[in-house]
Amino acid sequence: MRWKKLLAATLAVLMLAACSGSDDTAGPYGTQQAKVGESLSILGWNVSVANLRFEGDQVLVDVDAAVAQDGAEHAPAESLRFGLYGALAHPIEGNVIGGCASAPDLSLQPITARDPQRLSGTACLGPIRDQSQVRGVYLYSPQDRMPKTTVAYAAAFPVGLAPTSTTETGLSMRSTSVDAFKADGSQLAPTALGDPEAFSGNGYMLLGLSIDGLAERYEDDSKARGGPLMVLTGPTLPGNGLSHACSLYGSSLLVLPDAARDAVAIRASMCTQGEINAALLYPSVSLVGTHAALWTTE
To answer: Of 74, 94, 66, 98, whose CA–CA distance to 82 is shortest?
Structure first.
């Protein structure tokens, strides 16, 4: 009987150690992490990212992904976005599907949506000149939003986003620039607010944003939440939208700074677009928790 009790106690200790052991896929800011060339399960997909390379002013990666389980919930393929990870001067992201449209001169097989259950081909991220800072790529979906994590702020033209505090999210944000346009590309000055004819039809606004915080707090908050925060601007339109700038800047951004840095210090440009009153006078900038995967070259 004594050896049975000893055996039971030993097994209990081993089980406790196994449960409390570190997760091999645990990455910075609540992400799942693997090396380039390995696979991760994220957002209902099994995703492999390989062969990170540079060609021209683009970063290329080969992607092989499939829905993890038939009939199970998963992020729509067209919602998936890649971004560059590292000490970049400016965030660079792109849609998994259609992200190579800006690199027509490259000889590659871009990812398409012919099969919504499987993705295979090359993803493009750029343009980027200083490729020496790139340490990997991350993946997320703006449609994957953790419940009860959304904090939204008004960002109306011509003021944009007023400075926010770190109280709610651990991050502070403010506008660094605000530029408003009608759908035909003609720019609106602040004096247009007094013109009843200026705000008719569609339009878009380009927002320069400063996103700052302490990396240690953001790391702790992200791990407790189960993932990092993303910045979303709205309203927005699908596809290329009203301008090339909106297609390039996008309406979503994952806040995933290089883990080697002591602070979150991101300078980004984002777009709101649609019916001109909604896009310029009643837009919003939101911070929302999400799940993300990270592949690094190290």
So the answer is: 94
Task: Report pTM.
Answer: 0.89
Question: 152: which strand partners?
Answer: 286
Rounded CA gap, 16 and 51, in Å? 38
Q: Are residues 129 and 226 in the same domain?
A: no
Count: domains in the chain? 2
Domain region containing 129: 28-140
Same domain, 45 and 163: no
Q: Based on the domain organization, do 241 and 164 belong to the same domain?
A: yes
Burial of 281 (0-12, 13-18, 19+ CB in 10 A): middle
Pair of tokens at residue 277: 């009153």
Cis peptide before 116 (omega within 30 of 0): no
Q: Do 131 and 177 fall within a single domain?
A: no
State the burial class of residue 165 (Cβ atoms within 10 Å of its Cβ: 0-12, 13-18, 19+): exposed
Both tokens of residue 57? 């002013």
Q: What would the pLDDT profile of 37-96 be if each residue is shown by its tens digit?
A: 999 999 999 999 999 999 989 999 999 999 998 888 999 999 999 999 999 989 999 999
CATH value at residue 68? 2.60.40
Task: Tell which of 112, 140, 168 closes a domain.
Answer: 140
Spatial separation of the C-alpha atoms in residues 204 and 192, rounded to whole Å: 14
Instruction: Give every CB contact of residue 63 below 8 A, 6+ residues apart in sequence.
Output: 47, 48, 49, 50, 96, 111, 119, 120, 121, 122, 123
- Contacts (Cβ under 8 Å, ≥6 apart) of 185: 243
Distance of CA 99 to the CA centre of its chain: 14
Residue that terminates a domain, selected from 107, 140, 173: 140
- Asked if the structure places residue 280 within a domain, the reply is yes
